[in-house]
Design goal:
By secondary structure, this protein is an alpha/beta fold. It is 27% helix and 19% strand.
């Protein structure tokens, strides 16, 4: 079977690319291992809500049209939003079709699936950054008597033993899980490494109003210092809640969560933690204040209609424990909220770095011309890390892809059409 372009993945990014290809009358198919928006349906915890407000959740040709623009979609609502979009754009999606291999073929690519085999002139990888949970090697030191979950396997406190919980990781996921589990009545310890602290609202506006209106989300990937590091920073400590509350280390301590340093492993039943927590938190505070300074300067310069400047209480962690005997402390579960990573066992192309990540330049996979990737953190701009980033990114990718097809048509006319 042949299509000019094969898109792998029918999440919001893959469908946005499909819409752009249709606009350009480029023949294509979208291959999806499960259902449309499969990850949102099957790989998220029950209470998850987007970090971005609804008004910022939009795709090419589809703005948010609901009655709660300042609300935050649940994972089920996101799945419904994306599924509705697939229907509206009449995307040529082949569901329940798992890709098993992508390799170079004369003048293009061969994409094998568990159902059939496709040839194409270009391929777009839209499987996202969250294929599998990223777990540190130290996770292997947790004794078998302790229940272990990742953010991908965790669903709700009801699934956990009636015992204390150690949450490892203080990104958005880690602080949200620590908050939820603590509210279930269990003792919770949070092991916090490097993290990004942000207030939910600032000077009366949602933090995403500031970064969207102020242009920060539109900073291009080639304008960012140390792009590799920026692409792999933890997600900011935020939660999408009706009361628009901030959720950071101070808020968790106030709830009774014990906060310790970075998890180093377990030896003879004793969990060990870094002693650098105070420095780690001070650095997060410093970076937050620098961002707020930048927002204040933008507000002053533009005359934005906002409240007076604010500054937030520095993070206070006291004297955190460096060691905890898991049995004596009654800890029955460790949840590793240490992020996700993409996984490409089916990608038979020389395009991965030593950590298994696709090497690309703003979505163009230069080692395999005609191969593109979308839906990754800071792919082409800071906005790329969020759903609405698919709008501009898909337009750029479609434009680059179109140019590639024009070039390929001169060499391999049978594959480019």
């Amino acid at each position: 079977m042949h299509a000019t372009v094969v898109v792998i993945g029918a999440g919001h990014s893959g469908l946005a690319v499909s819409r752009r290809l249709t606009e350009r009358s480029i023949d294509h198919v979208v291959l999806e291992r499960g259902e449309v928006a499969n990850s949102w349906r099957t790989e998220r915890w029950d209470s998850l809500r987007l970090l971005t407000p609804n008004w910022l959740t939009r795709l090419p040709g589809k703005p948010y049209a609901g009655s709660q623009p300042d609300g935050f979609m649940s994972s089920r609502e996101v799945a419904a939003f994306v599924d509705e979009y697939a229907g509206e754009i009449v995307a040529p999606v082949h569901t329940s079709t798992a890709v098993t291999r992508v390799r170079l073929d004369a003048g293009g690519f061969e994409v094998s699936t568990d159902r059939d085999r496709w040839t194409c002139a270009a391929v777009v990888i839209a499987t996202g950054p969250c294929s599998v949970a990223s777990v540190p090697a130290s996770a292997a030191t947790v004794p078998p008597s302790v229940c272990v979950h990742t953010a991908m396997s965790y669903r709700s406190p009801d699934w956990l033993p009636d015992a204390g919980v150690l949450v490892v990781g203080a990104s958005a996921t880690g602080v949200q899980l620590a908050d939820e589990i603590r509210r279930s009545g269990r003792p919770v310890t949070l092991a916090a490494g490097e993290h990004v602290r942000l207030p939910r609202t600032y000077r009366g506006r949602d933090i995403f109003w500031w970064t969207d209106t102020g242009g920060i989300l539109d900073e291009r990937h080639d304008e960012v210092d140390d792009l590799v590091r920026a692409r792999h920073l933890p997600s900011p400590q935020l939660i999408g809640s009706p009361e628009r509350r901030s959720l950071d280390v101070n808020a968790l301590v106030q709830q009774g969560v014990a906060v310790v340093g970075r998890f180093a492993g377990v030896v003879d039943g004793v969990a060990r933690f870094s002693g650098a927590l105070a420095n780690t938190c001070a650095l997060a505070d410093l970076k937050m204040d620098r961002l707020l300074d930048r927002l204040d300067e933008w507000a002053r310069r533009t005359g934005a209609d906002v409240g007076p400047p604010e500054r937030f209480r520095p993070t206070e962690v006291g004297r955190p424990a460096l060691e905890i005997d898991l049995a004596r402390a009654g800890i029955g579960t460790v949840v590793f909220a240490t992020g996700y990573r993409p996984d490409y066992p089916w990608l038979d192309l020389p395009v991965l770095d030593r950590r298994g990540r696709i090497v690309h330049d703003g979505g163009a996979v230069t080692a395999a011309p005609g191969c593109f990737v979308v839906g990754l953190n800071l792919l082409r701009r800071r906005r790329s890390s969020y759903i609405n980033g698919a709008d501009a990114d898909s337009a750029d990718i479609a434009s680059m892809l179109h140019r590639h097809l024009d070039t390929a048509a001169k060499s391999y006319p049978s594959r480019a059409n």
